[in-house]
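Example S7 (structure tokens).
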């Protein structure tokens, strides 16, 4: 059996946005977008299978660098509720980003994850 959802968005939060983007652009020949305000000014690039990678700076002094994987789902409310019921800590409730979709964030085992619904 396998996980029934694919990666939809891979978010990298780093204080060195330009340097991190340079690594991916030079090692894979991908080009990142201009900053997208709705995604915290992340610069994005396409990934295989329709996923997207976003690289952005921390949005506050308390946000630490992190790589956060968002899994695609057709029912974000149910998926988020099930994650919490299974013991995950809800870090951000379901929120719609106009033109991008909906997301939620949860923590478990010292890691951060999310769900994303288009």
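Recovered sequence:
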């Amino acid at each position: 059996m396998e996980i029934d959802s694919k990666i939809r968005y891979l978010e990298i939060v780093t204080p060195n946005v330009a340097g991190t983007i340079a690594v991916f652009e030079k090692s894979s020949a991908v080009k990142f977008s201009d900053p997208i305000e709705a995604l915290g000014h992340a610069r994005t690039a396409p990934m295989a299978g329709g996923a997207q990678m976003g690289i952005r700076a921390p949005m506050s002094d308390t946000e630490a660098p992190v790589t956060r994987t968002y899994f695609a789902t057709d029912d974000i409310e149910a998926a988020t509720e099930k994650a919490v019921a299974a013991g995950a800590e809800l870090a951000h409730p379901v929120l719609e980003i106009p033109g991008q979709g909906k997301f939620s964030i949860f923590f478990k085992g010292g890691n951060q994850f999310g769900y994303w619904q288009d």
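Notes on this example. Residues 17-28 form the longest helix (12 residues).
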